[in-house]
Amino acid sequence: MSQTVINPKKPQDFTLRHEIWKNRASYFLMAPYFILFFLFTVLPVLMSVYLSFTYFNMLEMPRWVGWQNYIKLLLEDDIFIISLRNTLLFAVITGPVSYLLCLIFAWIINEFTPKVRTILTLIFYAPSICGNAYMVWNLILTGDRYGYLNGILLRLDLINQPILWMQTERYIMPVLIVVQLWLSLGTGFLSFIAGLQTVDKGMYEAAAIDGVKNRWQELWFVTLPAMKPQLMFGAVMQITQSFAVADISIYLAGNPSVNYAGATIVTHLLDYGSTRLDMGYASAIATILFLLMVGTNKLVQRLLRRVGE
Amino acid sequence: MMKAIFHGREKEELTPEQEAELRRARIEKMQRKMKHKSGKKKLNRSKAGNALLFFLMGICGVFMALPLVMIINNTLKPLDELYQFPPRIFVRNPTLSNFSDLFVLMNESWVPLSRYVLNTIIITLGGMIGHVVIASLAAYPLAKHKFPGRNILFSMVVLSMMFSWTVTQIPQYLIISWLGINNTHAALILPAWSFGMGLYLMKQFMEQLPDSIMESARLQGANEWQIFWKIIMPNVKPAWLTLAIFQFQQMWGNTGGMFLRSEELKPLQYALQQITAGGVSRAGAAAAVTFIIAAIPITFFLICQSSILETMTTSGMKD
């Protein structure tokens, strides 16, 4: 205290430099990762944002066009509006539902003995580890009467002719949502499984003594607060996944799908990026998608802070 | 007295002695309950709840296991069954001929099979181990130290995961060419070391560790490097094993894409996919390929996952 009074004009950057020097061990530990991170992740993102203000066809040098890509995207591109709507539908439905599924299944699996747990984890993680597992859905959704779904519905007399699931506009989104949910036990699920292992077993005993009566209370008052960091992580992974749905839509419904009924922001982006070679426009789509995800993330993190209260 | 009125029910205010008595009684009751159920570790479990949850698991499990069932059955099907219409999931005359077909095809390629396997080992293990180590090293200070720039660095990592990699691929390609590592394994491995997810995952787990364990190590003269390896990493074993699974899967699925042009540098995944592209007569070999492509990460998954679920050393760690 007395020092600051004697020397009031102590330059601001002296303390900052001092702080940095004092924490040099921290910076050394982080250096290898962050050098690569800036080189291979931050720099490409900044370059993409720059490209979003240009016309760039990957053959000529990028040409600066200002806000033109964004104006076209938001005001003139009808398909972008469709894909935006579909993406938001995916995000609103599959996002929270698959987050809860990850959590619930991880939690139920945790009730079993370790050997059974490993097997169950594998079964539930199978769609995520088997490469193009969604190919199974081709068998189920084939449009003729030999497709499993049509076969069952015909046998039960619920329909009298087979339905072309992936070629009929109004079935595309519901089917894609179901498939996406089926695929959803991925990164978040495994991190919850790992997170549950780190919850101190003593806390359950203490909670039981303090009057926690059933497993649901135990989940809300003990387990979830103890694994808050994993819940945050799972939420971010869920956002990045449910806003970026594209592979299943392209595989099952095609790109473009019938009347763009299965279009998402990322299929639209791929359409411009890899088919029409308009990287400037594709970068603008990516930037808008990025802003959407950042906003959603802010909202979700705020909600998650209230867990266990 | 105020308290009792507020709660609206008759409740005498307790003296500290009475309260302690009550608590002791509750603990005793609990201990009796635990002794009664000796051998069972879980508290607070009802039979009906168990039944409901396990029923739910059974139904969903069947659907989730579909791809596994299909891959295993397909790989055992002879060619005529693979092309049977309408398709069936279960095999009728199982055979291993698909694998022998595959090995014949693999031996025909002008780059020896062992070369592809070696490339895959370098790329997968290199990308995985390197990432787990440097992401954990960076996660430790972010989780446990306070220094200028900490929040901004961490936010950048989280936000980086939200930018579509489809468009960053082109700039990334330019940077890799500029560094002169194009058409080397480093072009796949180094970018993989900088993925955001690993750092985020490790940081979240490290955050949970109590500061007291590091402080006591510091008092005994350990430096940050030693604390990281001797105290932090053993205590977040479930986290880095999980990260290893993710990264293994990611690197195993990499075919080299636009970064590897020389045939002798390409990974097994690429060679296998070339075989499946060979048309109708290779459907059998293709089924075997699908099996192998899934079987290896699954094996790795089982090894890691079983050791995650058997650690459980954290009891008494938290403060």
Low-pLDDT stretches of chain B: 1-11, 35-41, 313-319
CATH superfamily of the largest domain in chain A: MetI-like
Largest sheet of chain A: 2 strands, antiparallel
* Percent of residues in helices of chain B: 55-70%
Q: Which percent band covers the strand fraction of chain A? A: under 5%
- Helix/strand class of chain A: mainly alpha
From the 3D structure, determine the CATH topology of the largest domain in chain A.
MetI-like fold
Fraction of helical residues of chain A: over 70%
Q: What is the strand content of chain B?
A: under 5%
**Structural shape of chain B:** flat
What is the string of SSEs of chain B from the N terminus onward? HHHHHHHHHHHHHHHH
Average the pLDDT over all residues of chain A and give the rounded result: 85
C-alpha end-to-end distance of chain B: 35 Å
CATH level-four homologous superfamily name of the largest domain in chain B: MetI-like
| Oligomer type | heterodimer
Radius of gyration of chain B: 28 Å
Radius of gyration of chain A using CA atoms only: 25 Å
The secondary-structure element order of chain A is HHHEEHHHHHHHHHHHHH
Largest sheet of chain B: none
Largest interface, C-beta closer than 8 angstroms, per-chain residues: A-B, 102 and 107 residues
Total domain units of chain A: 2
Quick gist of this model?
Chain A has 309 residues and is mostly helical. Chain A has helices at residues 2-6, 12-22, 24-51, 68-76, 78-109, 114-129, 136-141, 148-155, 169-182, 187-197, 201-209, 215-226, 228-242, 247-253, 265-275, 279-304, and strands at 54-55, 63-64. With 319 residues, chain B is mainly α.
